[in-house]
Write a structure and sequence with these properties.
Layout (H helix, E strand, L loop, with lengths): L2 H18 L14 H11 L6 E4 L6 E10 L4 E10 L2 E11 L5 H17 L3 E4 L2 E6 L2 E10 L2 E10 H4 L15
Antiparallel strand pairs: 1-2, 2-3, 3-4, 4-8, 5-6, 6-7, 7-8
C-alpha cells in the first residue's frame, strides 16, 4: 500500500472511532439525550422547583427547559438548562455561583476543575477560563468567570449533530440591494 492510502486509512479509522465514541455523561445528563429521559432525570433531582419548558414561538419542535436541582451523590446544587431540537438535547448546561461576601467562589472553581478532570481526564484549554473535552461531534465545556471573591461556573454538554438540525427552522433574511 502507498503512504497516501495508509494515511487515508488511518484517517478513516480515526473518524470511525470518533463517531462511535459514547456520549459524555455528567451527573446523568448527556448531549443528544431525549426529552423524556432528560425530564425524568431533572424531575428526580429537582429541589423544591418545577421543571419549566417553553416551546419556540415559531415551532413546537424547538424547546428550552430549566430547573434548579441538587445531586444527591454529593449535594451539589445547580441550575439545569437544556435546549431541544426535534426531541433531542443539543445543549445541556449546569450553572452555579458562589463567593458573594465569602471565599467559597474560589473553592467552587477548584473543586469543579478537580471533579471534571477526574471524570473526563486532561482537558484542552480553549482560552483563559475555559476548558473542553471533545468526543467526536460532542463536547463538554467548563467555563468560569470571577469578580472579587465571586465566581460563576458553567458546564455545557453539546451535541453538534443535533445542533446542526436548527438550520431547518431558520429562514434566511431578505437580501439587500447593493
Amino acid at each position: 500500500m502507498t503512504r497516501t492510502a495508509l494515511g487515508l486509512l488511518a484517517l478513516l479509522h480515526t473518524v470511525a472511532l470518533a463517531a462511535q465514541a459514547p456520549a459524555p455523561l455528567y451527573r446523568g445528563f448527556a448531549p443528544g439525550m431525549g426529552y423524556r429521559e432528560f425530564a425524568a432525570r431533572a424531575r428526580a433531582l429537582s429541589d423544591r422547583d418545577m421543571l419549566r419548558c417553553n416551546t419556540s414561538t415559531n415551532t413546537a419542535r424547538i424547546m428550552e427547559c430549566g430547573v434548579a436541582m441538587r445531586d444527591p451523590a454529593d449535594s451539589a446544587r445547580f441550575y439545569l438548562s437544556a435546549h431541544f431540537i426535534d426531541g433531542n438535547a443539543d445543549v445541556v448546561a449546569l450553572y452555579d455561583s458562589a463567593g458573594f461576601g465569602d471565599n467559597r467562589g474560589v473553592r467552587l472553581v477548584d473543586a469543579t476543575r478537580r471533579h471534571l478532570t477526574r471524570v473526563y481526564g486532561r482537558p484542552r484549554v480553549v482560552k483563559r477560563g475555559m476548558w473542553e473535552w471533545r468526543y467526536g461531534r460532542q463536547a463538554v465545556r467548563f467555563s468560569w468567570r470571577g469578580r472579587a471573591s465571586a465566581r460563576w461556573v458553567s458546564i455545557t454538554l453539546t451535541d453538534y449533530t443535533v445542533m446542526d438540525r436548527i438550520s431547518r427552522f431558520v429562514t434566511p433574511g431578505a437580501r439587500r440591494k447593493s
